[in-house]
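Cross-check.
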Amino acid sequence: MTAKNEKAKAKAEQAKGKAKETVARAVGNESKAAEGHAEKSKGDLRQAKEKAKDAFKE
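Predicted model, tokenized:
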């Protein structure tokens, strides 16, 4: 996968996780909210990894 694809995947993962967390909290489902938070965090880590790779390329 290219770096551009990885960055897009990270952004999508972050957005999906945040949406899941927000909706779950609104309806009072803390289990799903935790899942959403974990998914968002995974996207955050993926994005950080891509930024680090970019920094070493320069």
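The chain has a mean pLDDT of 92. Helices lie at 3-27, 30-57. Passed to J.P. for a second look.
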